[in-house]
Amino acid sequence: MSTPTLGLDCDVIVVGGGPAGSCAALVAARAGLDVVLIERGPFPGSKNMYGGVVYPRILDSLIPEWWLEAPIQRWVTRRSTMLLTDTQAMTVDFRSEAWGRPPYNGATAFRPDWDFWLAGHAEAAGAQILTSTTVTGLIRDASGAVVGVHTDRPDGDLRARVVIACDGVNSFLAKEAGLYTHTDAKHFTLGVKETLALPEEVIDERFNVRDRQGVDIEILGGTSGVNGGGFIYTNLDTLAVGVVLKLPALAAQKARPEDIIATLKAHPAIAPLVQGAELKEYSAHVIPEAGLEMMPKMTMPGMLVAGDAAALCLAAGIWLEGVNFAMASGMYAGEAVIEAIKAGDLGSKGLAGYERRLRDTFVLRDHRKLRRAPKLVLSDRVQHLYPAMVANTVERMFRVDNPAPKPGVRRILREERKRAGVKLSDLARDGWNGFRSFG
Amino acid sequence: MTIGSIVACLKWVAHPGEPNDERFAGMSPADQSALEFALQQGAAMGVGVVAVTVGPAGAERVLRDALACGVARAVRIHSARPMQSDDVAAAIAAVIPDATWVWCGDYSLDRGSGSVPAFLAGRLAAQQALGIISVSRSADGVIEATRRLDGGRRELLSVAAPAVVSVEGATAHLRRAGLAALRAAGKAPIEVVQSSTPAAPYDAVVHPYRPRARALAAPAGDAALDRLRALTDAGAAVSARGEQVTLEPAAAAAKIVDALKSWGYLA
Amino acid sequence: MIAVVVVRSGQLPAGAAEAVAECDGRAMLVGTGTVEAAAGLAGVSAEVACAELGDAPLATGGAGVFRPAALAAALAGLLADEPMVVLPASPDGRDLAPRLAALLHRPLWAGAVQVTEARVDLARNGSTELHRVSPGAAFVATLQPGVRGVAVAAGAAAPAIVQVAVNLGDLFEIDAKVTEVLPPDPATIDLAEAERIVGGGAGLDSTERMAQLSRVGLALGASMGATRVVTDRGWAPHARQIGTTGVVIDPDLYLAFGISGAVQHTSGLGNPQHIISVNTDGHCPMMQLADLAITADANATLAELETLLSSGAGS
Ligand SMILES: Cc1cc2nc3c(=O)[nH]c(=O)nc-3n(C[C@H](O)[C@H](O)[C@H](O)COP(=O)(O)OP(=O)(O)OC[C@H]3O[C@@H](n4cnc5c(N)ncnc54)[C@H](O)[C@@H]3O)c2cc1C
Ligand SMILES: Cc1cc2nc3c(=O)[nH]c(=O)nc-3n(C[C@H](O)[C@H](O)[C@H](O)COP(=O)(O)OP(=O)(O)OC[C@H]3O[C@@H](n4cnc5c(N)ncnc54)[C@H](O)[C@@H]3O)c2cc1C
Ligand SMILES: Nc1ncnc2c1ncn2[C@@H]1O[C@H](COP(=O)(O)O)[C@@H](O)[C@H]1O
Q: Model pTM?
């Protein structure tokens, strides 16, 4: 471990023991830097929540064969996208055995387990983890550069060459540093989730899986008219059932999230899946949803921002990925810090390697690709008009009205589009946007 | 091994809300109070405090917390399995034979029986003051303490060293460790000793708790139905059992006082 | 099995009769006023051994003062031929039992809910688990008060008394010195022990109102308790919460102000002899339970009550 320069307590302070923070600390500590990770909870991950699916391939280089030791619940081998109206459901279902074998694709995992496990690797690499400690402010030098943090402990100041802020959504550090120039309630969604207990065999049977295989269902519609979406994930012997709701829409409708989940659970396509399950936990959290549109400046002299703190979560309808983005950005922040310390430049130029890495990898590329997706998926048309239009179209395609002959699909489409009140020009534009985003 | 004179006995216990998750385990509120009293006394006497725990390696967590709060030494007596109270006391007594003041929690949160402190007092030939709810220290090294008796009574004790004092949770608020101390505690050495006393096995068959059927005095009433009602309260909550009135506040207050007088609660 | 019960000034501790009943009536009372206390075991025991220490003033540290180490030493000799000893888990019983077990070289089964010669059930992990152990041929156990109850036929005769000589000796320095015994104070008494309780619910309007409730309580010799809504608001400490996730109480008198009477609350109320409820909603469950249900504003009523009680109406 290197000895920090005089007047400093350590080389690197990482704030936040979520996936971003632990990966940043792990990378920096492995390079021999003196790293302190500060977490406000009693242990890393203790209070962290999310929907439930993590995509860990980014760990291939950091923790080879991570799948042998990672605390996962089930391997996702089935992905469904469900379109709901009040009485109808259309599901596109995909399953792959390949996703149930190394190197795997997605897995369900509990955040307290996942985050604690990752933090354990950071600690084993030599990072010191201080828990039950909250960072309350930044220490800056005369030039404005960040040189440490204040904490809520007695004699709580800690000085370092660089601070990596991984303090999650609504990052108080990034805001204090002035890195966010424009944030707004409309940039956020509220994620609300219930954890429901069912025996392992019942889940296997209802979701048509076995041997730790799991299912990821993303749902469009079914959110009681509040713009948003839903999800169901299978853990070993619990289900995560939740909704992601647009904040302004939620406020405007004065709807209660727990009622929306209750309505979703009562939907004829969902009810048989959750029937008889016992509620174990209810939790809620804000998600940065607006992608590129809301991202802050990623660095300033003496500080970098990673993970949700930098709004790097990818939340675009049928995608809900944040943990992988957090792990990756934390890792790249760690690498950039090593580079900068070697070069002896912790100013904007020295830290530029961070943004370069983000730009060159999926972290920002996926965001750029999907930059129109959140708006599209949460738009009123996609939310309120298209599900009924599609479901009615499909219903008529498969309905056998003998003696009436089957109508042509084109005619049904035209009639249903009109009935739903969708303009052809809007449909064409949304289709094109969708194709550019998801295609 | 002989260790100096102020000791805090700290047990690593599961969090009651998360009994199967070691990550939430730590010091009980009672042990936190004990540690705080020990630290205050140590500061007043100019003596370093020794923290002792009996437990597996994970129990070092409470010792690190204690080190961060300012204890001078930390000793873990290794024991992979839970031990009987007398054996815990024997193991602790063996490493602190010359202790003058031993601070314990009144109950450990998990298996707790509140008996380790008394066993320890026996082994150390020390005075005991158990279930203490407040402490005021007097000048000559004697401790004045208040203890809970039943029926809401209190007992004031004057305790002289050597003594074992067990305190209730929330009788003192454990100080918050400073940042530098917390960092140092993470790296501080912890002495680990093997218990020399052979521990008796604890063989219990564990069942979910069900209250035992309670014996009751035979109820009054001639008819079987009345006796049944008296025993089960059947019907009591269904219909109002007493007088119902609507009153202005002043009249309501007067009505309450009248009722209390007629029932004999007020003269 | 024999029950050993520490008696102070003729008063049996909590759980004394239950411990004696658990031992089929075999009992030894030790302390001060033992003969007087034995009368309280009518119907539970036919014959009681009384080891009287005699009352002596506190100040002298005399024979009558509770001295667990000295008492254990004195009793160890007397109980050598009693392989199975049960004490109530009252404060004095809990103090004495480990010292006794240590001197008798027997295991201690502390906090039992049932004790038989072949089997002891212990409440563990905050009374969520029952640990069943084979206690061995000789042991000391403490029995939790309130777990078994006693059935006493009305009009049972007081037990016969057998006097036993016991000498605590003069090794005073092995025990802490009792300097004073204070009477119960409703402001600090454990809710579980309180005989009169005033409860406050969400119908009360402020933390100041809760303070007023406490003062009214003091004037009535009653302790303050609250519903979870109130403790969640931080208007009363959690130790004052009555109910399934708080304290289970068993008072004679309960006064409910602005409490709806949710089952999580009422299931912790025990079986009060008298209940008064003040609520603006005459039909809520708490009003149905009350002996006197007053439909009124609880806040104004409390204010009036405080004035009334301080003007001497209550004394
Ligand atoms: C309902 C919902 C469902 C989601 N579903 C998924 C999903 O299925 N898959 C997926 O990949 N992502 C999902 N996400 C997104 C994902 O949870 C986040 O993107 C991810 O957690 C970001 O990780 P992080 O390390 O940046 O921040 P966090 O996980 O939020 O960690 C921040 C850490 O910093 C600590 N902290 C904060 N402030 C301070 C301070 N001042 N001092 C000290 N410590 C501090 C916190 O305690 C916390 O441990 C979901 C999010 C929500 C809300
Ligand atoms: C798992 C669980 C455990 C729980 N454990 C407990 C527990 O241990 N203890 C507990 O108490 N609760 C507990 N609760 C909560 C319980 O269900 C109730 O919510 C709670 O007891 C209600 O408290 P309250 O009567 O003060 O409030 P409310 O139910 O809101 O009732 C307020 C009452 O005040 C009356 N009121 C309003 N204004 C006035 C006025 N000006 N004058 C007079 N009356 C007025 C109203 O008519 C109403 O009857 C628990 C709940 C859960 C789910
Ligand atoms: N294993 C242990 N290690 C250290 N102290 C203990 C241990 N067990 C009990 N104690 C102390 O004894 C007190 C009462 O515990 P118990 O007798 O188990 O209820 C605790 O609060 C601790 O102070």
A: 0.83
